[in-house]
Amino acid sequence: MASTQPVVSIAGLNKWFGEFHVLRDIDLNVGAGERIVICGPSGSGKSTLIRCINALEDFQEGQITVDGIELGPRLSRVDDVRREVGMVFQSFNLFPHLTVLENCTLAPIWVRHMSKKDAEASAMKYLERVRIPEKAGSYPGQLSGGQQQRVAIARALTMKPKVMLFDEPTSALDPEMVKEVLDTMVDLADEGMTMLVVTHEMGFARQVADRIVFMDAGQIIEVNKPQAFFDAPQHERTKLFLGQIL
Ligand code: ADP
Ligand code: MG
C-alpha cells in the first residue's frame, strides 16, 4: 500500500468561518481501501472536515487531493472531485417526490450520461447490495429511516465513487435500525471500499476501522489503530472523550 497514491490526501488544511478558526493544520492521507473513523466532541469540526473533501465547504489554506484531483482554496475542479466522492448524511437527503429507483438513477443519467435502461439495471444491482430491491418503486416517505439510509448508500454507490464519506449516518435513526445500516457499511468495507466515517458507534470503529482519528477544537489530536486508540489513548482529551462515550 505504501507504493500507491493515497485516495484522499489532505495537507496543511486551515479553514475559518469568519473569525472562527474551525480547522487547524489538518494533515491526513487515506490509502486505497483504507477505513478511517473520525470521532470527537460535538463542534470539533468533523462535519466541516469531511464536507471540505467533497467541496461542500471552501477553505482558506492547504490542499486536498482526491484520486489525484487537486482541490485548492479556490475550489477549482469541484465537479471533478464530486464525481469521485460519495457522501451519506445524517438526514438521508433523498428526493421525496422521486421513487427509490428514480433517486438512484438521477445522477447516473444526468451526470454520467447513462441511458435510463442501463442506469436502472445498475441501480437495481446496488439496491440488491443494500438488500432493499423490493422497495425500488416506493417513495422515501413510505420507508423506515434505516431503509432510507440504505437507499442513500445505494444511491451514492451508483456513481462508482473512489471514496465514500459518511457523516453520522446512524445518529438520526431509531436504535433498532442502527444495526441494518452499520451492517451495510461493514459489507461495503469488506468489499474494499475506501471510507471516511464520522461516527460515535465505537463497536463499528473497533470492528472496521484501520485507523481512528480523534478531533478536538478543529485539530487532529490523535490517530491510531483501534486497539491502541481504545486501550491506550495517548492524550488527556482523548481519554476524557472516551470516558464520556464508552
Ligand atoms: P462537528 O461535526 O464535529 O460537530 P462541525 O464541523 O459541524 O462540528 O462544526 C464545527 C464548528 O464550526 C462548530 O462550532 C460550529 O458551530 C461551527 N460551524 C459549523 N458550520 C458553520 C457555518 N456554516 N458558519 C459558522 N460556523 C459554523
Ligand atoms: Mg457533525
Automatic annotation (TrEMBL):
<feature type="domain" description="ABC transporter">
    <location>
        <begin position="8"/>
        <end position="242"/>
    </location>
</feature>
<comment type="similarity">
    <text>Belongs to the ABC transporter superfamily.</text>
</comment>
<dbReference type="InterPro" id="IPR003439">
    <property type="entry name" value="ABC_transporter-like_ATP-bd"/>
</dbReference>
<dbReference type="GO" id="GO:0005524">
    <property type="term" value="F:ATP binding"/>
</dbReference>
<dbReference type="Pfam" id="PF00005">
    <property type="entry name" value="ABC_tran"/>
</dbReference>
<dbReference type="InterPro" id="IPR030679">
    <property type="entry name" value="ABC_ATPase_HisP-typ"/>
</dbReference>
<comment type="function">
    <text>Involved in beta-(1--&gt;2)glucan export. Transmembrane domains (TMD) form a pore in the inner membrane and the ATP-binding domain (NBD) is responsible for energy generation.</text>
</comment>
<keyword id="KW-0547">Nucleotide-binding</keyword>
<dbReference type="InterPro" id="IPR003593">
    <property type="entry name" value="AAA+_ATPase"/>
</dbReference>
<dbReference type="InterPro" id="IPR017871">
    <property type="entry name" value="ABC_transporter-like_CS"/>
</dbReference>
<dbReference type="InterPro" id="IPR050086">
    <property type="entry name" value="MetN_ABC_transporter-like"/>
</dbReference>
<protein>
    <submittedName>
        <fullName>Amino acid ABC transporter ATP-binding protein</fullName>
    </submittedName>
</protein>
<dbReference type="InterPro" id="IPR027417">
    <property type="entry name" value="P-loop_NTPase"/>
</dbReference>
<keyword id="KW-0813">Transport</keyword>
<keyword id="KW-0067">ATP-binding</keyword>
